[in-house]
Amino acid sequence: EKQHSSATEESSHSNEGTPLLSREGSLMSDLSITPLPGMRIRCHLIGKGGGLSNCSTNDALNGAKSGRHHYWVDIDADPRHALEVREWLQKLNLPTFVIDVLSEPPELWASQVIPLDKAVLAVIRTLPEEPDSDEIAHLAALGLRNMLITFTSCQRSETGALYDLAFQRMNATERLPAATSDGALIAWLRFHLDRTSQVLRALRHSVVSMDSSMDRDGVHSVQLEEIILAKDQLLRLLSVAEEQSECIESLSAAFDSSSSFRASASLPILLAKAGSTERTAIRLEKNLSDLRERSEGFEHQMTNRRLAVLTVVSAVFMPLTLFTGIWGMNFQNMPELSKPYAYPLALSFMIVLAIIMICYFRRAGWFD
Predict the structure, then answer these.
(1) Separation between Cα atoms, residue 190 and residue 251, nearest integer Å
(2) Is there a contact between 76 and 43 (Cβ–Cβ < 8 Å)?
(3) Nearest-CA neighbor of 67 among 257, 252, 258, 256?
(4) Digit-coded pLDDT (tens) for 69-83
């Protein structure tokens, strides 16, 4: 926050906020935004070279109104009551449908693209700050003629650090395909697509390592629990990749001729990127299924071996138990008991019989 302190507006502002959009969708004059308590608003001027510089909300809103510059405004609302968010958004005089979407609780958000008269609203699912988390996180982007507004009301523990990462990525040299709000939207989307792809590549490297370990050291070198954990992570990534791909497809269809040529030309690249990530996740799912089948097959094989050993032991001791039972009966006339060397002969007979049976089972393949 120290790095972007000049771009963050806290709740200490006391002035009344005026609407951001008029009823016709055009920017109004004398604009400002009064943030709610705990809300973070960061504003950036998009330079002609594509770099981002911090500015105030007044400068961003009135500069976008003049049409001379392009801006990116990021609004982090943090979880709060839906009615409170709705009332605040109504002060910006956004289209009613946009207010309805953004004021919903974060757990009800869904990936979608809504083309408007002079804007486009994109709600995209993204990975939480911790990719291994089970939380579902969505971010919204409202693309206007001279301004990109990104909005989230997720827990800051899920998406709080994503703004800093996105800012660093978008502020790098030639990261924006065009020094416009459309170019900022493309770069913002590219950041989240690349992040999903990077996590998926790391998971793929882990799966390849498991496969190599199984081939080199044996199936037992990889625990089934490791494969199940990787499969769970992959399913989360696949659901994110599918929603992102669908969102980019819809956005590509919704973009009109008002977008700059470079920004419009970048959409097919994003579409190919999202599709490639989704296909990679599907292939990786098949690879993990194969690894799981190998691991489970090995577990079944080990279980069968243990059962075979128990079967052989039971078969060996069965006749020995029979003879022991016969010779242990308490009858008066048992000739064997009076014979000299009867005891060592009986023991020798049982040992030889056990060895013969073990050799038989071994030749029959019970110990393979």
Answers:
(1) 13
(2) no
(3) 258
(4) 899 999 888 777 788
Please tell me the distance from the alpha carbon of residue 3 to that of residue 77, in angstroms, as a whole number.
20
Q: How confident is the model at residue 291 (pLDDT cuts 50, 70, 90)?
A: very high
Alpha-carbon gap, residue 227 to 231, rounded angstroms: 6
Opening angle at CA 94, ends 90 and 95, nearest 5: 110
pLDDT of residue 361 exceeding 90: no
In the beta sheet, which residues pair with residue 138?
125
Give per-residue pLDDT as tens, 212-239: 999 999 888 889 899 999 999 999 999 9
Angle of helix 261-327 relative to helix 181-217, nearest 10 degrees, comes to 20
Which residue type is seen at 273? K
What are the residues whose beta carbons fall under 8 Å from the beta carbon of 185, sequence distance 6 or more? Answer: 122, 141, 143, 148, 263
Compute the CA torsion angle 196, 198, 204, 209 (nearest 10 deg).
-150
pTM of the complete model: 0.76
